[in-house]
UniProtKB/TrEMBL annotation:
Keyword Cell membrane part of the UniProt annotation: no
One GO CC annotation: chloroplast
GO biological process: chloroplast-nucleus signaling pathway; mitochondria-nucleus signaling pathway
Keyword annotations: Repeat, Transit peptide
PPR repeat extents: 108-138, 245-279, 280-314, 315-349
Entry keyword annotation includes DNA damage: no
Protein name listed in UniProt: Pentatricopeptide repeat (PPR) superfamily protein
Organism, scientific name: Rhynchospora pubera
Residues forming coiled coils: none
Family under the similarity heading: Belongs to the PPR family. P subfamily.
């Protein structure tokens, strides 16, 4: 089914550049509500005891009197809810210790890792090391590379590179085999949380203590934007007599394409074939993106045909790269044609596909086509939007003062549990308050809380002021009670060092 486009305003090249994508990667944890997966009525009961108890003794007394049967599954569900709601980490740790002392109860590795994550989000580093030592004492095999990734990632978020590396070295005493898997975990953490330069420095200072493998070099190759740095690392890999694999070549191709050196990228394809390494869909997707950046969307589309001829069928990501090229070239007709072609070859457009078009409509202020595409996405293809989709749409509603569509989108989000209610409610509440619709703004705020997400301070303050002006004392009391659930929601250092 083709989408009927209304008259489009003129698009600008800058509005579609890839670097302008909204930085929403860190919001993935907000798009799911763990309370919906629990279903166990004991989970909220335990959670309320943990969050409402003024002391450890009162919490233990309440737990004993509740006579709720404790199990590993119940503990895991409670910990997930605590992490999601950012509840009191110390009281949660006391509950964790309390349940551990029960006769016959043994914590699982998953429970330990989740508890570490909860403590790390509040920068409770002393407690983290205490739990790690307990894990080692119970079973040294519990401190796995995954555990190390959790701990190092949390430490890197709040501490310096030096402190992160020192923490990595401290882990050696708690692991059975402190090998290259842990070294790779450190490098991956530094690449993601700090910078490539920090990862490179750590690699050179510690590589003699480990035996780097192909994954070690691939981790470092995957983050470089500089051709010179990537080529030096690739050469060091060869000098170390480590044979590059498909991932290694794909990383180098990606660097070349992003730096407009398609000549070097094509040479990599030739070298891969000489090494009997068959390029995969990611190899070609990088090439498609590079051709688009060079202003060659038609040649990029031809790569899709070339892939099929070589027995490498394009996937949704490859089509999305080609669609983006036509969006950049302001050829939306061709872009929609490719989306229809996806369905013809058995592929369904995903949320990224639609976001490419929502981005176009947002920057040209086209509410009509955006709402039409949203309805096709939802009703015809059954594809749920994500936070980025919702932000484009709700901000368009704000620009146009379209309360009706804004509330329609909001109800879909609440009903189908997609997108960050916190971020979208900020804009929607602002719109509703400006339109004098306090009842609906109030309802929106409480729906955020009911779904286990924390409204922003800006929204809460604005609603509170309007409630006070309207003398809604009952609503003010309800708001106070709702927000008290999140009193431990802010991440604070608490004066503890790493």
């Amino acid at each position: 089914m083709a989408l009927k486009l209304f008259n489009l305003p003129k698009l600008t090249y800058q509005c579609l550049l890839p670097r302008l994508y909204l930085p929403l990667n860190s919001l993935s944890s907000l798009t799911q509500n763990p309370t919906t997966s629990a279903d166990d009525p004991h989970v909220p009961a335990i959670f309320n005891i943990i969050t409402s108890s003024p002391s450890s003794d009162s919490m233990i007394k309440s737990l004993d009197s509740s006579q709720i049967p404790l199990s590993n599954d119940l503990l895991d569900q409670v910990l997930k809810l605590v992490r999601f709601r950012r509840a009191n980490p110390i009281r949660t740790l006391e509950f964790f210790d309390y349940i551990h002392k029960k006769k016959g109860f043994i914590h699982t590795q998953y429970s330990y890792d989740t508890m570490l994550d909860i403590l790390g989000r509040s920068r409770r580093f002393e407690e983290i090391w205490r739990v790690l030592k307990e894990m080692h004492h119970k079973d040294p095999a519990f401190v796995t590379p995954k555990t190390a990734a959790i701990v190092l990632g949390l430490i890197a978020n709040g501490c310096s590179v030096r402190q992160t590396v020192e923490s990595f070295k401290k882990l050696k005493k708690l692991c059975i085999s402190f090998d290259v898997l842990y070294f790779n975990t450190l490098l991956r953490t530094l690449c993601q949380k700090k910078s490539m330069s920090d990862a490179r420095n750590a690699f050179h200072s510690l590589k003699h203590d480990f035996k780097p493998n192909v994954n070690t070099f691939n981790i470092l190759l995957s983050g470089w934007k500089s051709i010179e740095e990537a080529e030096l690392l690739f050469q060091e890999m060869l000098d170390s007599e480590i044979k590059p694999d498909l991932v290694s070549y794909n990383c180098l191709i990606d660097v070349y394409c992003k730096n407009y050196r398609l000549d070097k990228a094509r040479k990599m394809f030739e070298e891969m074939r000489e090494q009997e390494i068959k390029p995969d869909v990611r190899s070609y997707t990088s090439l498609i993106g590079g051709l688009g950046s060079m202003g060659e969307p038609d040649e990029a589309r031809a790569v899709l045909k070339e892939m099929r001829e070589l027995g490498c069928n394009p996937d949704v990501a490859a089509y999305n790269a080609a669609i983006r090229n036509f969006c950049i070239a302001k050829r939306l007709g061709d872009a929609f044609g490719l989306m229809d072609e996806m369905s013809q070859v058995g592929l369904e457009p995903n949320v990224t596909t639609f976001n490419l078009f929502f981005r176009c409509f947002y920057y040209v202020n086209d509410m009509r086509n955006a709402s039409s595409l949203y309805k096709r996405m939802r009703d015809v293809l059954g594809c749920l939007p994500n936070t980025q989709s919702c932000e484009f749409l709700i901000r368009l509603c704000r620009k146009h003062g379209d309360v009706g569509f804004g509330l329609e989108l909001w109800e879909d989000m609440v009903l189908n549990c997609f997108g960050s209610l916190t971020l979208v409610s900020d804009v929607l509440i602002d719109l509703l308050c400006d339109e004098g619709r306090l009842d609906e703004a109030e309802k929106c705020l409480f729906q955020v809380v009911e779904k286990g997400q924390r409204p922003s301070n800006v929204s809460v303050k604005r609603i509170r002021v309007l409630m006070e002006l309207a003398q809604r004392h009952e609503s003010l009391h309800k708001l106070h009670e709702a927000m008290s659930t999140f009193e431990y929601g802010r991440v604070e250092n608490n004066g503890l060092s790493c």
